[in-house]
Fold this protein.
Amino acid sequence: MIATATKKKWRPTLGLVVVAVLLSVLLLPLAIILFFRIFEHQIFQQTENALIAQSAVLSAVMSQMVEEQEEISLDDLVSAERSVSVENGPYTPIAPRNYLFSAKTYPRRAKAREAAEAPSEVMLNIGSRLSPLLMETQKVTLAGFRVLDHKGNVIAGRSEVGLSLRHVEEVQTALSGHYRSVLRERISDEPAPALTSLSRGTSTRIFSAMPVLVQGKVVGVIYASRTPSNTMRQLFKQWQIVAIAAAFTLLVTTAIGFVFLRVITKPIYELIDRTQRISSGDTQAIAPLKHNGTREFASLADSFLAMARKISERADYISTFASHAAHELKSPVTATKGAVELLLESGDDMSKDQRTRFLNNILQDSNRLSALLDRLRHLARADNPKSSGTLHLGELLDHLQSHYEQLEIDVACERDQTLPITLENAAIIFSNLLENAVNHGASKLTIKVEETPETLLFYTSDNGRGISEGNAGKIFDLFFTTQRAEGGTGMGLGIVQSMVKSHYGTVSYLPDRAETTFLVELPKATANSG
């Protein structure tokens, strides 16, 4: 048996898919920017880590030099509390700053000023001893160094020896005994570097100020600076990371394409294929799609297949009905034609009784044709009811009791219930049921109504001859009748079924009841019915 409804499961809406794809497209460049930002953050931290390590070595060397100078009195130096980690004991690791979320860039470093108090000869001597070490270190690391005394005066460096950097923020922090680093704008006074320069295109420079401590007192500052390496050059060096990022971008792009193919393109092509197959007469194509994608496509496919199924059923119904109707109409027409031909050929030789019998046959066949045409008209109306409205149950019951006085009708229900059907259409349904009961010898009929939250159930039970087990499966077939000789057309129950279906209800025969019982189920009237 072919499944006729799409399996119910969660599906994204088309709007949700479009929003998700647009967000992916929107977030992809942001993700790339974030990737470069993280990579730049790593480069900056690596640069600062290098400055911390180099400054720590120079600080240790300077501390040793200061301790060796007996001329220096530590009591004259500014005291500073040295931060000692409880967990690490005497070790005080310095972590680089977070350049990813706190990447404030300060203006270019202020120029050195005249010293308020010139550095001592002892400190200048230490600076001169450190200068060769600074130069050799700079050749390898490309970092710039200034060695300051405890007053912030430069005692070792290129052109600023004897000047003061005490007014610089990071130097002030270091003179108080704490390490500090800042990111400053880089505006070089020198000519533009060569294309192969490691620092080409970098517009910032990292400055770090590390205090030199001796016995908990600040005796100087190692002031270092370094321009981070160019990001693009570093990316080229670390091509594996770039390859991973490119693969991720390709993966996201492929995922977006797959989503569109899965939820939009594929269902469209499958629905087109089903349309072509159904139009060529393939009824197997009237089945749920394999890929519905979004809720809208699932709803569209269900609606389309439901329409195709109804059209197919309607075509089968019309074909079968036309065949049966032609057969039913042909029989009385043929009989009438034969009787008329006999009367024309041999009418003068017939006795009065023979002519009367032939005329009666013609009349009976004419009456049957008239009855069949009336039933066909009722069936056409039942298939396409044009009137709409509501009906109180009491009106219907009064109508039936007034038109079928030969039946003892027992009603067991509330009379104020409202049905979404007109009296005329409801009368067609129940009049045919009552007519069927009368034709089968019933003298009493009971109508019982039960109510569900959404429907009304009408049980009609009569005490007639009943329906045989062999005929029970054919009673709703058009033109099936066991009373053809008595003028039965076999269309009454078919008309009932068509009218009930037109009002979104069902009718069925209940063979397990003691009396002949039919069940008609009709929806309740809503507030906007009619």
